[in-house]
Model the fold of this input.
Amino acid sequence: MLIESKNVPFLQFLMSEPEKLYLQGVRSDRTAPQKSSRIYCHLRQLHSKLTRVVQSGALSSGENLLDFGCADKPYESLFKKKFTHHIGADLPGNQRADVEISSSGTLPCSDSSFDCVLSSQVLEHVADPELYLAESFRVLKPGGSLVLSTHGIWPYHPDPNDFWRWTISGLQRQIHLAGFEISSVEGVFGLESVALQLWQDATYERLPRFIQSTYTWCFQRAIDFIERRQPNKLSNDAAVYIILAKKP
Done:
């Protein structure tokens, strides 16, 4: 999933238990997470809002999509509704990848060869976001789309590294500087939900194990209740931003 990777198993051995639990949750089925997951609402909303992007007329259909930092291609079935070929790019060692990203972060792909680039929860782990976005721009056809999601406010989660968080303005500026025109911005969570998520994650490991699942369930239900009140509100303090952009 990452662009900057060393010895992943060794670094994961050094992680705290909350960080390991976060990665286990993310690497589970992101389209249908278990209700016991401590990031249940986060994963549900992320999938729901990516689905809304896919279903919108603003995302044009095409032949080839590049999943840039694909991991296990969790959204392949979703994006195949609009793109015939879902091509995964990742570092060497990922058997699900079709294309290997070089150690410098560049892609062995021709200019203007894809109709869409998907970047889902990758950018915060990339050592050089400018290069990553430049490569995304380069391999897109004119008129092609970038669908990118990354974190605004979220706990530290190295996989194996975790470099960045963005404000809504900073992320849009970064994407504009890469040459893209932004079509839409979606958000996952408002500030109230972010606060509850952070408090849950900060206190989870301090509780006896027998009560942890109930504790998580209560927090996730509270977040769900809050988010249902204003499901389409875009917060300036979101946990995740989802951007649809175009290459002119």
Summary: Residues 1-28 have pLDDT under 50 and may be disordered. Residues 189 and 238 are 5 Å apart (CA to CA). Helices lie at 8-14, 17-26, 40-55, 76-79, 129-139, 168-177, 191-203, 209-229.
